[in-house]
Design brief:
The chain is of the alpha/beta class. It folds into three domains: 302 residues, Rossmann fold, CATH 3.40.50; 119 residues, 2-Layer Sandwich (Domain 2, N(10)-formyltetrahydrofolate synthetase); 83 residues, Formyltetrahydrofolate synthetase, domain 3 (Roll), CATH 3.10.410. It contains 20 helices and 25 strands. The strands form six sheets. Strands 1, 2, 3, 4, 5, 6, 14, 15, 16, 17, 18 and 19 form a twelve-stranded mixed beta sheet that branches. It has a four-stranded mixed beta sheet with strand order 20-22-23-21. Helix 16 links the parallel strand 18 and strand 19. The mean pLDDT is 95.
Length: 555
């Protein structure tokens, strides 16, 4: 079987008018970017606003490992599976970040015969949304530093600037830098650092905004610095809200593409789930719900991060009610959670597999805490042995967990019929979806509920800095916002080395920040980084364009 890139390059795509027609979209609302992708005009939302909402299906997973879980592959395959079952369906995905594309993880368009295309364009520049977000963020930073340089009329303390510049690339050398060096004409010298674009508040705001007007209102509220007497300074105060909105005028529109089987897909926005809330845009999801009877979406990393934030932040903000949750697990990843090294994954090991199911069990508990129906999707890999697959299915049945095999990577929608049927069954039931916490609770109470209920921690420990900032947030009225936890995705704890289901641990909150525009407080745990680094051998090293003009090495 060809690799993902070769499969995508060999695909014959339908034109965007045909894809739009499948989604019930008149071609006059299409804004084409070439022949294989398009933005959807702002007017479309108004024409479908009275349509009934479809059923929302969230795809999440166990804690990721180097063995791979295939959450995006399952999401795309499930959408194709539902379409094969005769359902009117759309998928909603995040846009990939160039950091992982050129780093270690790769792209985010699925794999095998469950892919979104054009794969290369989506994983690279696409329709320019990432560039717009980067520009808007850095425009605000430039205006802010210019205000300090030009007489500092807002009395900003340069040591209390909290708005960071960004780029959509992994570059550890930019984590701690000094700007404005040498000449006074270069600005006020101060320490600073970059974050990756997908970790910015601009990205979070794009994904939580209903429309461009809502975006401008949210970006105006963003806190960029504090004065010498500790008063917050906002984007509105420095006069940059209008210009940032101008930059984002086109990026706010959802992007329409297709799967290999020509199912319509909206790909829009892409915040990291370990730092931000990890979900595609509210604009795309709410639009899809008006266009389709079934909407399949995914949230980043495991249920401890993406799913919790999807449910507690995105659903709360956009008044969404999911109909079902799919929890993706693989034999290989569970074996790693059971103690198997990556080099030994091809060897059958049912004992390690069953030990690793403790990680799956914890994520199931977390989803049940939100009172949502769920199904475990066993995403199949070619080297899974029949005995291992049977052992995982038996474990699910013995413990009363709905389960279905998912073979979208190898067989596309045909390999997802069992999962599609189970999802249809689950969505026909009503549910008592509830949030994990009330926003009126204290910041500490919200963090504790997430840590104990979702991570399985015994409690939470705070640094002196975090305690001091929480007290300040209370004074500023920010304590009644949802909490966005910044935590390693590789473990239920804040220590990425602890696999499986650790017990008897504490969560360590080192720092907190305010995302007043996005509408949440961010709690930084463990050694979480907002600017990743490249691995020893980045994926970029093996990429290029051959003599025929075809890309190679992209995955």
């Amino acid at each position: 079987m060809n690799n993902d890139l070769k499969i995508a390059q060999a695909a014959v795509l339908e034109d965007m008018k045909t894809i739009a027609a499948k989604a019930g979209i008149d071609e006059k609302y299409l804004e084409p970017y070439g022949n294989d992708k398009a933005k959807l005009s702002n007017e479309l939302k108004e024409t479908v606003k009275d349509n009934p909402d479809g059923k929302l299906i969230l795809v999440t997973a166990i804690n990721p490992t180097k063995a791979g879980e295939g959450k995006s592959t399952t999401t795309i395959g499930l959408a194709d599976g539902l379409a094969k079952a005769g359902k009117n369906v759309m998928a909603c995905l995040r846009e990939p970040s160039l950091g992982p594309v050129f780093g270690l993880k790769g792209g985010a368009t699925g794999g095998g015969y469950a892919q979104v295309v054009p794969m290369e364009a989506i994983n690279l520049h696409f329709t320019g949304d990432m560039h717009a977000i980067t520009t808007a963020n850095n425009l605000i930073a430039a205006v802010l530093d210019n205000s300090i340089f030009q007489g500092n009329p807002l009395n900003i303390d340069p040591n209390k600037v909290v708005w960071k510049r960004c780029m959509d690339m992994n570059d550890r050398t930019l984590r701690d830098i000094t700007i404005g060096q040498k000449k006074k004409s270069n600005g006020v010298e101060r320490e600073d650092h970059f974050v990756i674009t997908v970790a910015t508040e601009v990205m979070a705001i794009l994904c939580l905004s209903k429309d461009l007007k809502d975006f401008e209102e949210r970006i105006s509220r963003c806190v960029v610095a504090y004065t010498y007497d500790d008063q917050p300074v906002t984007v509105k105060d420095i006069g940059a809200a209008g210009a940032a909105t101008v930059v984002m005028k086109e990026a706010i529109k959802p992007n329409l593409v297709q799967t290999l089987e020509h199912t319509p897909v909206l790909v829009h926005g892409g915040p990291f789930a370990n730092i931000a809330h990890g979900c595609n845009s509210v604009a795309a999801t709410t639009l899809a719900l008006k266009l389709a009877d079934y909407v399949v979406t995914e949230a980043g990393f495991g249920a401890d991060l993406g799913a919790e934030k999807f449910l507690d932040i995105k659903c709360r903000s956009a008044a969404l009610k999911p109909s079902a949750v799919v929890i993706v697990a693989t034999v290989r990843a569970l074996k790693m959670h059971g103690g198997v090294e990556q080099a030994d994954l091809d060897t059958e090991n049912i004992e390690a597999l069953l030990k690793g199911t403790e990680n799956l069990a914890k994520h199931i508990e977390s989803v049940k805490a939100f009172r949502l129906p769920y199904v475990v999707a066993v995403n199949k890999f070619a080297k899974d042995t029949p005995a291992e697959v049977k052992a995982l299915l038996d474990w699910c049945h013995e413990n009363g967990h709905p389960v279905a095999e998912a073979d979208g990577w190898a067989r596309g929608g045909d390999g997802m019929q069992e999962l599609a049927a189970e999802v249809i069954r689950l969505t026909e039931q009503d549910n008592d979806f509830t949030f994990l916490y009330d926003t009126d609770e204290s910041i500490e109470a919200k963090i504790e509920k997430i840590s104990k209920t979702v991570y399985g921690a015994d409690g939470v420990e705070y640094s002196d800095l975090a305690k001091e900032k929480i007290a300040d947030f209370v004074k500023n009225g920010w304590d009644k916002l949802p909490v966005c936890m910044a935590k390693t995705p590789l473990s239920l704890t804040d220590d990425d080395k602890l696999k499986g289901r650790p017990r008897g641990f504490m969560i360590h909150v080192k720092d907190i920040s305010i995302s007043a525009g996005a509408g949440f407080v961010v709690a930084y745990t463990g050694n979480i980084l907002t600017m990743p680094g490249l691995p020893k051998v980045p994926a970029a090293i093996n990429m290029g364009v051959d003599e025929n003009g075809d890309t190679y090495g992209l995955f």
